[in-house]
Amino acid sequence: MRERKDGIIRFGMILAGAVLWGSFLYIVWIWVPRAGIRYLLILLWAGLCLMGLVGNLLQRRQVCRFADELCGTLDELMAGRKPERYIYYEDTLVSKVQGKFLQFYDLMSEERRLSRQDKQVIQELVSDISHQVKTPIANLQMFLGILQSHDLSEEKRAEFLEMTAGQTRKLDFLMQSLIKMSRLETGTFTLHVEKTDLYGTIAEALNVIWAKAEAKDIRLSVECDSALTARHDSKWTAEALGNLLDNAVKYTPKGGSIQIGVRPWQFYTRVDIADTGIGIPEEQCHQVFKRFWRGQEAAAQEGVGLGLYLAQEIITKQRGYISVKSVVGEGTTFSVYLLT
Amino acid sequence: MLRNNNLKICRKLVRREFQFHKGQTLLLIMAVTLVCMLYTFSFSLGNLTYKGFLYSYRTIYGSDSHIIYENITEAQAAALKKHPAVKDTAALSAVGVLSDEMLENRNVRLAAVSESWARETDSIPVCGRMPEEKDRADHDKAVFDESGLDKTVVHGESGFGKNAPAEIALDEITMNSLLIPHEIGAEVPIKWRSAEGEEYTHTFRLCGWWENQMGETDSCAWITAETAEELCGKRPDTLMLGVTLYLPGDLEKQAKDLLADLGLKDISYTTNLAYNKARQDYAGREAVKFYRMNLIVVLCGVLMICHIVQLSAQQNIRFYGRVKSLGMTPRQIRVLAAQRAVMVWVPGILPGWILGFLLCVGAAPYVVVGMERNPAFAFFQLWPFVLSALLAGATTLTACLWPVGRVMRSVPAQAVRYIESVEQRGRKGRKTRAPVARRMALTGISRQKKQSLPAAFSLLLSLVVLCCVRTMGTSYDEEKYLDGMALCDYRLCDASAASGVQRYNPKSRSITPKIMEALSVHPAVTDMGQACTMEVPLYAKPEDRARIIDAFEEVDEQGRARKEYMADEPDWLAGYEKMRETGEYIGIVTGVDGLMLKNAMARQAFLEGGYDKEAFDTGKYVIAAGAASSHIRATPPVGSKVDICSREFEIMASVPLETTLLSGKDSRQAQYNITYYLPLSAFEELFPEHGIRNVAVNIRREEQKAFEDFLSQILEGTGTDMFSYKDYQWTFRNAVFHLCMIPLFVGSVMLLIGMLNFANALAVGTLVRKREFAVCESLGMTKKQLRRMLLWEGACCYGVILVLLVPGTGILTWLWGRWWLAHTNTWCITWRFSLLPLWVSLPVLLILSLAVPLYFFKKIAKESVTERLRELE
Amino acid sequence: MEIISLHNVKKYYGSKENTVKALDGIDLTIRQGAFTAIVGASGSGKTTLLNMMGGLDVPDTGEVIVDGVNLSGLKEEQLAVFRRKKVGFIFQNYNLMPTLTVEENILFPLDLDGSAPDEGYLREIIELLGLKDRLTAFPDMLSGGGRQRVAIARALAAKPSIILADEPTGNLDSQNGQNVAGLLKMTTELFHRTLVMITHNMELAQLADRVVRLQDGRIV
What we know:
The complex is a heterotrimer of chains A (340), B (873) and C (220).
Chain A: H1 2-31, H2 35-78, H3 93-149, H4 154-186, E1 194-197, H5 198-216, E2 219-223, E3 229-232, H6 234-251, E4 257-264, E5 268-275, H7 307-317, E6 321-327, E7 331-339
Parallel strand pairs in A: 2-4
Antiparallel strand pairs in A: 1-3, 4-5, 5-7, 6-7
Helix pairs in contact in A: 2-3, 3-4, 4-7, 5-6, 6-7
Chain B: H1 8-20, H2 22-61, E1 67-72, H3 74-82, E2 86-92, E3 94-98, E4 107-112, H4 115-120, E5 127-128, H5 134-138, H6 141-146, H7 148-158, E6 167-171, H8 172-177, E7 187-194, E8 199-210, E9 218-223, H9 225-232, E10 239-245, H10 251-262, E11 269-271, H11 277-311, H12 313-325, H13 330-367, H14 375-378, H15 383-409, H16 412-431, H17 436-475, H18 478-485, E12 490-493, H19 513-521, E13 525-539, H20 542-553, H21 562-565, H22 570-582, E14 584-592, H23 594-600, E15 608-609, H24 613-617, E16 621-626, E17 628-629, E18 632-633, E19 641-644, E20 647-656, E21 673-679, H25 680-686, E22 694-699, H26 704-715, E23 721-724, H27 725-767, H28 770-778, H29 783-823, H30 836-861, H31 865-870
Parallel strand pairs in B: 4-9, 6-8, 14-21, 16-20
Antiparallel strand pairs in B: 1-10, 1-11, 2-10, 3-4, 3-7, 5-8, 7-8, 12-22, 12-23, 13-14, 13-22, 15-20, 16-21, 17-18, 19-20
Helix pairs in contact in B: 1-13, 2-11, 2-13, 2-15, 2-27, 11-15, 11-17, 11-27, 12-15, 12-16, 13-15, 17-27, 17-29, 18-27, 27-30, 29-30
Chain C: E1 2-13, E2 20-31, E3 35-40, H1 46-53, E4 61-66, E5 69-70, H2 76-86, E6 87-90, H3 102-113, H4 119-128, H5 144-157, E7 162-166, H6 174-190, E8 194-198, H7 202-205, E9 210-215, E10 218-219
Parallel strand pairs in C: 3-8, 3-9, 6-7, 7-8
Antiparallel strand pairs in C: 1-2, 1-4, 4-5, 9-10
């Protein structure tokens, strides 16, 4: 249809050109009495027409070349070769489009790389899980074996049953953490980020560790305006804060204190969790958020090294971030930045 | 390659730049306006000069037509009109020429009305109208239209010698020469000669006249076609044809080619002087003087815009560096700069044109003298405007692209560092504290050195130019000139002797006794005198003759006899030869009294003899005047006798002829003459019925206005012409003005530019230290201290300028003046050294250098210190 | 995968006697998508290093290769295009155009390129950086932090693969510094950009994947 239209337009243009020429010649013939000037005018007019024609031709050639070059680039990209990059820095339309193609190509390869990475992560996760699960399962098997094969006194049996229950709890905790982690890693859940009350979230997080802190005689102080809000998912953020608090309670000796401070900034709302614990050496600050990482000093404490990792994942997913400031022996401050 | 389409941002940036920096933009636009004005003015003036010359040639030629063919038939005229190269023709069918001997210096054709010819020669009556066939108006038209016969019959009745004479329209010079009263309906006897050479006299009725714009030497007397036919008895068979061509070029050749194309032979023609190659070249050379001035103007314009751009160079370099670091390509930067130039150029053009044109309108009457319409309008042409706009554009573009080049050569990091280094310099100044104001002022000055120097330079240049012009203007001595040129305050001329081409008609009585009486009793008149002349055939005795012949034929230093210089004046030669052969010559006997007598011997430069009042008053003596130089005595010797109208006079003294004493021209036979002055009483005895040719009057200058009113009142309607010393004054002043005008104008504009630059430099010098001032204030300097510092700074700046300008201008002007004095060859000069422009501009500069920084500081200080400190841009 | 690599880059300033070695043999590679912090005392050549990476300065010896292109082989015009397409620069003194509004400033690199903005993407950036209400304001009506955010938005607008930030928090108080640095880290991570940032603040450097220390023009 469009081709037909173009055809009609072209025909029309030829017709119009002919008419223009005809009328021009006529006018020149009638109104210009001097032959010399008449021919000069015709020549000038013809020259103008010629220039227009040449210009059109040039334009056409340029468009053809434009298409050719783009095709060339696409061919190279499809074949997986990276073309010479200098050409993208010309100030021309071709290089503009080529640049976009290249950007697209880079994005695609980046995505490929990421999905490969995801796969790898899942593999690692599986191996990590299997590794972590191994010990409690072996213990359980051992305890069950003992319970089954030996005739034990009631007391002993109760003791073993208690140990079995403990291992099961640990297994459960591990499984819970792993499930959360895997869901986070693979993105199978969604965070509902909305501007909500921060106070409630902190209270929820405190609920989890209240008893533990009480047990260790740790003072908890919260400094938070009840009217403060931040853009976050209340449930998951409570989980992350809970993990950080749990961590703080764990590494704070008896009689210490934990302070929770909230400072609203223009962009971020900063939640500080400061403890008077053992502290983290500066060179390890980078590593505390790694999966299954546990400091040497922390060997005494029970845990699997997932809490901080999970917390960071959750906060980052909400476009916030966590930073650590710590002095060994004096305490550690974790700062959680949530978008205001 | 298809270019990327990314120039839109440039436009936006430029637009915003202008919105944000309105002051600077306005300044730039003003600069462009000034430059455009300068160009327009000087180009237009050059054009005017050129056109003015051509106009004067055209006036001499007497017609606008390019070629005038004489004596061609109507068929030939029609053929010429149809020729493709011919744009228009104007035909004139002349019956003959006016043959009164009073018109011997002029050529007045008696011709049938030709509107086209009248238009071409500016000879349409302004008083009254063109002659119309009287009967056509009075009688019922139908009567004539029935048959051609009727017409002739009616004509016969109204013809000559019968009750109603035919109508005629004349020009004023002709009327004055023929003593025709300026009254519509007056009966005028006209003597004329037909083409066949027969003389007739007919009486006509005057129906209109016009002033002579053109055609002093060549004019027409209009009669109707019917009258013309009647006078000849037939339709005139030959015409004069004025031809206007499409493309006037080498007119001689074109005239010949036209004839050749039509196969015509033996037709005489004249070509318009205005298109003469040599004359055009001469006019061109005169105009080039103005164009040469343009070189200075261009320099001046470039200097000015460059300066303004350079002042903001730091800002510009930062700007370009910034956009470059953000990824602007060189092409885009160039476009940006060019658009900037265009943005200030376009709004600057129109005001520049208008101002330039207005100036030109003001100056034009002094450049082209004697036009009724303002020459600026009459010779309006488009090309000076187009050219000046283009040149102004080129100037702006160059100036705007200049900082771009600097940015292009450097990597962006350097541009950034450049800014930092500037800021660092600012920081250093901060540390000096204690008696801050003065010390800081000094450091401030040294920092601004680079910026203020160009301003100082342009100031110096402009002041030198202005002082030179002033010195030149005052050195042209008006007193000296008037002493030499104007013999008296007022000179009245008889109507027939008003123009230089008119022959004085002794019968004319336009200066009446009534006028003389009124003058003699007028209280303002201190001195007066009259001169009356009469041409009298005289005889020179052989011995006297020999002395005169010697005077004219003796060979001078250049190896030429005086006679030879007169070779192009055949009438003079004829008169001289006649005297040489026969001793008969025409003497111009001039009766003089009072002031006129004094003037006749104005410089007391007696060649021989001396003036003895008592003896002269007896009426027995005459004073002879003739051509003279250091060793030429072209008069009969003192003591010899002349016989005038059979009365004998003795020559008492001999003086050089004072050519400005009398107006008008003498007859052709009298081109060679000897003038004899004798007392008026003696003249009256000789010629009791005489008219007065000229009256000289001196007045008390303070009553000049009243006297002039009185004069114009008593002279009204007499046709008497008045020539005042003010005319000489005007001529002189005009000439001086003409000489000084362009340099004066250029100098003033340059001074203005220099002042602007100076103020701008001061303003920028204050504004760029905005942050520094804030720092000073935050360190505890009070506003008062800062203000005092700025005052000191201004004063120091002024001091530097003073030290530079005063001796500089003085010495340069003096040197130039000496050179000029040595190279000029004008007689009316008295060396008067003047530095007035300098003295005038010094206080202005002082005010500027004190007020501008304070004003801008006040503007800055409106913002709070913290606000200023925070500002990084 | 390396996106920036410098090989034996040297840059000296000044004349013979008092040469300042701004950079004295730098070898550095930066991975794509990484966040690298450059720290060091003032005068240690940090800014020069960053300028080299962004094509704002040329090394005396050695080569700078960005995304497979040796910068010394680029012509003036190509360098300009490189700067506006490949690199988003955040200057210490913001370098905003005072005559353009916030929105126009953000769109400036795109306008320079003559390309149409990706509306959705830009809206996201503007919202993230909290500039939605200030779009029609002029830079000098904003606070230092505000201007810095505009500069960040501008750096991100043309979707460059590299963001070079020269002490983006230098002129800000620590609170705003944290704000800006966090935004910078967050946005670059979100859009998979490579970020190189100069900073004095160790707490901010901590946010980086890698910290490069400069001393007297050398990496220590």
